[in-house]
Amino acid sequence: MWKALQALIAFMALMALHACLVMSMANAQTYYLGVLAPQGETVAQERWQPWLNQLNKQLQDDTVVLVPLALENWQQGIEAQQFALVLGPQVQLIKMNTTHWRWLATLQAETATPADKHDNEINKKGFKTNATDRQFSATVNLANEFNKLSQGSPLKEPSAMEEVASALWVKSDSGIYQLQDLQQRKITAVDSEAFGGYLLVAHLLQQNGVPSNRYQSHFVGYPIERTLHALASGSVDAAIAPLCLMEEMVRQGKISEKQYRLIHPVATTSSCQSSTRIYPNWTLAATEQAPAVLIRQINQNLFGTSQSKQALLGIGQHWLPPESSSDAERILYDMNRHPAQKQLGAHMVEWVKAHRLWMAVIVLIILISTVNYAWMSWLAWRRRQKITLQNRLIRDYDQQLRQSERFAVIGEMSGSIAHEINQPLATIQNYAQGLLIRSQRGQERKGLDNNSLNSLTAVEKSLIYKQATESALQQIVNETERVAAVISNIRRWAGRSQPDEVRVDIATTYEQCILLLGEKASAMSFWLVSDYPSLQLPNLVLDQLLMNSMVNAEQQGATQIMLRCQAEDYNGKSYIVLHMTDDAGGFDEAQLLDHKQLTGNKQLVDNKSQQRLHNRYATKSTKENGLGLGLMICQRLCKSLGGMMRLSNIEVQHELNCIQALGGYQQRFKRNLNGKVRLMKTESTYPLANKIGAQVSFYLPLHLADNAEK
């Protein structure tokens, strides 16, 4: 019974142990450790795998797997959040987002020597050291104490993976002896982001007045041995290498140390030569994926195992508490490489995000202002186009008006020339035809006179014929002179020059105009009364005024033409007025309204007719189908003298009684026996053709009258 009970208890214990093992295996986890591998995956496996194997043995159920990472994909792999543990140089971890990370330990270098011994070696070589270069971190001082305790034991060979510093190497026969000699030289390095390499030396050169734009940088990539190989080949002038890389390659027999020389050596706690001070070594950190139990077990492994036990296990890594990264971060700040240093654009984006409400208001205001500006600009452009178009139309219209005015002046001038020259030419034609007829009659009479006994002698007949011919020729000469005078007046008028004034006899000029009518005036009576014998006028002006009026009267069938010259007052001013009156029936009422002055004869001008008054004086002919050139010329002549012209209808008998009362006289054509025509005064009474006649009144300034002979 007892034996059966013991067997049952043993079986149950085995079952419980088996269950615990199964549960433990079920809860076991695998975690990944990302390690920077600057010398390749093989070197990283050889260096870190022994320590990781010893760590996995002490873990209860979990397993940590080593994953080497190159520098180019180091940050991307860590940020993928697949690693629970990260092991790398402290400065490389600074560039990442390490929020919620826990710093576990910092690697201790095994190649340290007593500081005094190293200082003596440096002093023997004649290199100068500064007090600032001897300021070590607390971790380095603690490492020196451990090394003092282990004095007498052989030191480990130096390695480029154990400490963070940079060495600047040149060939021994190079002419470069100080940092300033590197200007315009070609320098090789592993990578622009390598802290224990390019960044430390670039910061050193920058502090010594050699910025990066004064030398050429050439990056060869990993593995790190490529830098010294490039220097050995002579393709570059200097090489930047991690601390202890030269000593490690010399020990491996890859290069000869005598062929190279260090630039800017400084005293450090390391047995390796360096151009910069030593910064905190590699750091082990736990990410958010690492549980607290795993972190606690790792801490016990790192700081709970003695160095003698680690040496028996073949583990060469020794760990110290995590050290501050302030010195490394200061260098990154100086080089503008710190991740906290954001570009101006990033700061502006953050500021905009922080003040997005106000920025939205500002953007809205700017948008509204832009739209308003665009709208106003479009309106202004449209208004400008309209104004430009209107100005163009106004200019075109003004040009057309000017052109029309020029054409009107040209037409007026040509019409005036034709009208004025036509009268003398008609007179010349009449006299020439008269001479021709007289010559023909003279030939006929000569044949008859040969058979007539009562005829005059041949001498007398020849004398009479000669006198008639001479008279006609003299009239032709006079008319040609008159044509020349008309042309001269037209030239003066076109040039707007003031012609010379002459003394013009009114009666003589009136008689000459009557004679110019020729045979057309043979059945007409001409009356004249004048308070002034002469006027001071430009040459032929009075002839033109009288002739145009008399021709109009003759063409309308007048039998009586009267000229009355006397002083009158009109609208408060005194004028000398020439009234030309006929008995041809007067002006047509519609035509007369077009010729009335705006301020005169208001009883004949109604509201309807005022809308048709375009000019101040008459410009339309009083004859049917007439051009109005005669009246237009008279109007312009009066205006040029400072006067005016008026048209009206009048009772002919009343005008005749007025002339007779003032002592006027009547003249008619009379032909002598010899055929000569002359004006003769007569007292005979001749009937009027019409009771109503037309009157053209020329109002001239009173100063034109010859008062001395009044």
Describe the structure.
It catalyses: ATP + protein L-histidine = ADP + protein N-phospho-L-histidine. Keywords: ATP-binding, Kinase, Membrane, Nucleotide-binding, Phosphoprotein, Signal, Transferase, Transmembrane, Transmembrane helix, Two-component regulatory system. One of its GO terms (molecular function) is ATP binding. With 710 residues, this protein is of the alpha+beta class. The protein folds into five domains: 30-109 and 281-341, D-Maltodextrin-Binding Protein, domain 2; 166-263, D-Maltodextrin-Binding Protein, domain 2; 347-403; 406-483; 499-709, Heat Shock Protein 90 (2-Layer Sandwich), CATH 3.30.565.10. It is 47% helix and 18% strand. The chain is built from 21 helices and 20 strands. The protein has a seven-stranded mixed sheet. A six-stranded mixed sheet has the order 2-1-3-10-4-11, with helices on both faces. A five-stranded mixed sheet has the order 7-6-8-5-9. A hairpin with a 2-residue loop joins strand 15 (560-570) and strand 16. Helix 14 (356-449) packs antiparallel against helix 15 and helix 16 packs across helix 17 (541-555). It is rod-shaped. It starts with a helix and ends in a 9-residue tail after the last strand.
